[in-house]
Amino acid sequence: MDILLNDVEVRVLGSLVEKDITTPDYYPLSLNALVNACNQKNNRDPVMSLDDSAVSEALHGLQEKRLAGPAAGADSRVTKYEHRLQEVFNFTRGESAILCVLLLRGPQTPGELRGRTERMHRFEDLDEVHSSLQRLMQREPALAKILPRQPGTKESRYMHLLSGDREEVGIAPAPAPAHSASSPDSERIERLESEVASLQKEVADLQQQFASFRKQFE
Q1: Is the peptide bond before 28 cis (omega within 30 degrees of 0)?
Q2: Which of 6, 17, 59, 215 is deepest in the core (most CB within 10 A)?
Q3: What would the pLDDT profile of 125-179 be if each residue is shown by its tens digit?
Q4: Residue ranges in 30-91 assigned as alpha helix (H)
């Protein structure tokens, strides 16, 4: 399958996958909700400022590639959109989570991927992350690759290949942080943010269950 996505298509596809997994009650997404998801300031690198027209054009491109499109049978007067990665690739939950984060945040180390996929899939250890990355790399054609280790770093980073192998066409990977000692702190902050979001969701679910329970006695 010949897939070559531009940057906006990558952001739209990643946002659809993320919302499918993390907020299923609000998925599929209207165009307005999808624009907001694409323009989030958290869990996005780089942060974008896309308008309706840019997102609509990206949706059209993704539909031509069979990767996304209008949701079938959605009970709403507003058109809603969904991704179709599962139909095309039949991913495991771990593979979907890793590819989603690579689409939304660019090249990352296995450690970063484990922390940033927490809300979508809980990897028990780094070996499980590596196994999912290997499966993506062994697809035909490959959907991910490992990048050369950068000077001063301990781990290699991985990138998705849905936009082609950009390293080969002269687009260098993002530079390493100037102060590598701060990266563990960044990872801890990412993990804490993810845990807080997960706890907030659990509290909301419990509140909803409690409200339903009370109604039985009213």
Answers
A1: yes
A2: 17
A3: 999 999 999 999 999 999 999 999 888 888 899 999 999 987 643 334 444 333 3
A4: 31-38, 52-64, 85-89
